[in-house]
Amino acid sequence: MSVLECVDLKKSYGRLQVLKGINFEIKRGEKKVIIGPSGSGKSTFLRIMGFLEPPTEGRIFFKGEDVYASRLNLNLIRSKIGFVFQEPSLFRHLTCLENVKIGLKCVLKMRDKEATEKAIEALKAVKMEEWADYYPAQLSGGQQQRVGIARALARDPEILLFDEPTASLDVELTWEVIDVMRDLARRGVTMLIVTHEIAFAKEVADEILFMNSGRIIESGPPEQILTNPRTPRVKEFLKRLVGGT
Amino acid sequence: MLLDYIDFIVQSFVTTLIMTFLGLSGGLVLGILSALGDVYGNRFIRIIIGAYVEFFRGSPLIVQLLLFYFSFPVLTGIKWDSFTAGAVTLMLNSGAYQKGYFKGAIEAVSKDQLLAARSLGMTSGQILRHIVLPQAFRIVIPSWTNEYVSLGLSTSALTVIGLRELTTISKSIAAQTFEPLEVYSLTGLIYLTWISISIKILNYIYSRVKIPGLEISVGAVPS
After folding, report:
1. Tell me, what CATH number does B195's domain have?
2. In which region does residue B213 sit, left (phi positive, over 0), alpha (psi from -120 to 50) or beta (all else)?
3. Which residues of A touch B (CB under 8 A)?
4. Is the pTM above the cut of 0.90?
5. Residue A72 buriedness (CB in 10 A; 0-12 / 13-18 / 19+)
6. Which residues, 6 or more positions from A243, have their beta carbon under 8 angstroms from its beta carbon?
7. How many CB atoms lie within 10 A of CB A64?
8. Which domain does B77 fall in, by range?
């Protein structure tokens, strides 16, 4: 069953068209990775799929229901999707534990005890339970990002969306976050990931999609996209990425 | 002898405290509402708030007091005493300044936190209550301390509408005793002691509610 699906999705900011007609589907348990150059619309696409921004045109289905056409409650849908951002976006006045709990209490209306148990469980999944009472500013970027993942994970979302979660981290911190994501992938969590970590993409992705100036120009299994891309644009991008420039 | 007047001095100082308290608390409500209106409101609301702030920050407090006490009754036919007129003017004046402090504090809460809250499915009201305001209140304390000092000392302007606060009473006592040196020295000392102690208390409160990482934003206080 498809968790998220979009048909002919377009997005413009004023006269600038950022997404130029995207068709996409992700089924339960699938892991899909989006790669592509900066400014190709990856983040915008992800935010729209997370219902954080409305599309200009096109339809988005959440578990088969046309969300905007049926005027579904967006906050309800958002509460079933976990979003991890590029910048660690923890609430700075709350401890790690409270950061994970707040959504459970405010949105899912869990009791305090239940929320605490759920939150601890999520913090354990990202190996951050020992830091439960620390404030974000007392943690490294990688640790903050792991708490961000716990926050997204705690309410057992239907899908997790990752918007370049390691882009603002150095190499070592990147790996601790990647390890956590690899773990989630093994547990069968449905994931849609924007990343530049090609090795990670190759390892976990069922499908890699390449985005360029607002379109998905190529998609397929990792082996095909990464070793034998059809389009010259993808070939060039991968060459540069591996070359490290 | 100055001691003969100690009752008057204490009473007038209490009036000064009351006026400061009224001005600051009324200004707090006005300031938060105007700041929210300015950040989240539509064009019309922003224009009204802009005009309000412009007027009260752009004219002397003494002129505002004279306007409210003497001119307002002429305009509306409503008579009010110097206590009410003074309290209302102080509230409006302080609200205009506090609006700036609160706006800065609200905007200091980073956009990615708001987006993250949105992604959790929180409503705008919940985001305001659980994410924005708890941080803004902590961030605002240092600038709010300045406003406390500034408004507290500005209450001496109430003397132009004859309110019997510390400065007004000092003037009368000085005139009666012919001892301006002693009287005004004492008055100055009272203001100084009061404000110094208040700053210590507010700084203590700030140090208690301060959260690691949140104090970084302090100092960014646009109008």
Report:
1. 1.10.3720.10
2. left
3. 50, 52, 75-79, 81-83, 85, 87, 89-93, 102-103, 106-107, 135-138, 148, 151-152
4. no
5. middle
6. none
7. 9
8. 2-209
Give pLDDT tens digits along chain A (245 positions).
899 999 999 999 999 999 999 999 999 999 999 999 988 999 999 999 999 999 999 999 999 999 999 999 999 999 999 999 998 899 999 999 999 999 999 999 999 999 999 999 999 999 999 999 999 999 999 999 999 999 999 999 999 999 999 988 888 889 889 999 999 999 999 999 999 899 899 999 999 999 999 999 999 999 999 888 888 999 889 888 776 54
Count of structural domains, chain B:
1
- State the burial class of residue B47 (Cβ atoms within 10 Å of its Cβ: 0-12, 13-18, 19+): exposed
Q: Tell me the residue type at B168.
A: T
Q: So what's the ipTM on this one?
A: 0.91
B221: in domain: no
Chain A residues with beta carbon closer than 8 angstroms to that of B206? none
- Chain A residues in contact with B135 by the CB 8 A cut-off are 91-93
**Of A89, A76, A95, nearest to A155 (Cα)?**
A76
Residue B215 lies in a domain: no
Whether B95 is in a domain gets the answer: yes
Q: Does B223 fall in a domain?
A: no
- Cβ contact (<8 Å) for B126 and A106? yes
Do the beta carbons of residue A193 and residue A201 sit within 8 Å? yes
